[in-house]
Amino acid sequence: ASPDPTQPGRPHDRVRLDHVDTQGVVTLRHAGRLHYIGIGRTYKGTCIKLLIQDLDITIINATTGEILRELTLDPHKDYQPIDPKKKKPEPSQ
Description:
The protein is mainly β. It has one domain. 0% of the residues lie in helices and 43% in strands. The chain contains no helices and seven strands.
């Protein structure tokens, strides 16, 4: 039987333990596609917990409980930058 299209689907929830890589990134597979989520080189090697509900992701330092990042995954982009709206400062003249 097919799911009823008039009924909202159940959210996809999962929890995952991982480590931030040497480039400050963690990978996450969504719908068969691998995405790279920027966290920052400051956290390289940090044990993290990813709380995933559909496209909403919270990344937590597994040791301290500090929230390192919250984002909504853009399924059309492989790399999810730390702050896509923030531009790099212009160099001083």
